[in-house]
Design brief:
The structure is a single chain. This protein is mostly helical. It contains nine helices and no strands. The longest helix has 26 residues. The mean pLDDT is 80.
Length: 191
């Protein structure tokens, strides 16, 4: 019985189960406690709790405003650990022949993990390409979430479920930026 439960948990859920589960989870949060679903505000909660530096931005009751969100992020980290370590699948990722060819054309040849080792390893960070991809890209993502007033999960899931025009505009911007990065920027950086 336990083995079949582990097998069920370690296999990916199909889109037709995972999508509606997320779709039902968000309205329940909005309805039950008016709790927004997002991740980017947690950095502010952590800074306010760990190192209150006297800045007005970090002077608020972070326990009341952010404890639920911090618990949510702890669950994300615990789930990621369980997925990567406890329920890890030793088989290589199932990529189509076309996907492998596209990645190989971008000089990404190691298809064993979820993240390409050519990009996401410490030695890769020391290169100009790694610095641009990880450091500059991270700064731009942080700036974008601050400028847009939330991250992709907050706007695309909660904001759209709450029918907010600002979230619709932000999601359109996220998709446009993703398409620009995928088809124009990344091929030039990885070639």
């Amino acid at each position: 019985m336990l083995a079949s439960l582990v097998d069920w948990l370690s296999s990916p859920w199909p889109w037709y189960v995972a999508g509606p589960a997320i779709g039902l989870f968000v309205p329940a949060l909005l309805w039950l406690g008016n709790k927004p679903f997002g991740v980017s505000s947690n950095l502010r909660h952590l800074c306010a709790g760990i190192a209150p530096c006297g800045l007005d931005h970090f002077t608020y009751d972070w326990r009341r405003e952010g404890s639920w969100n911090l618990l949510f992020v702890a669950g994300i980290l615990a789930g990621g650990f369980l997925a990567a370590v406890v329920f890890a699948n030793p088989e290589p990722i199932a990529l189509s022949r076309n996907a492998r060819a596209s990645l190989t054309a971008l000089n990404i040849t190691d298809h064993r993990g979820l993240a390409p080792r050519e990009i996401f390893q410490w030695p890769a960070l020391a290169t100009a390409r790694g610095f641009v991809l990880l450091v500059i890209g991270g700064v731009l993502v942080g700036f974008g979430t601050a400028y847009a007033g939330g991250c992709t999960s907050g706007h695309a899931i909660t904001g759209l479920a709450d029918r907010q025009l600002a979230s619709l505009i932000a999601v359109a911007g996220f998709f446009a930026g993703g398409l620009l990065a995928t088809w124009i920027i990344l091929p030039r950086l990885l070639a």
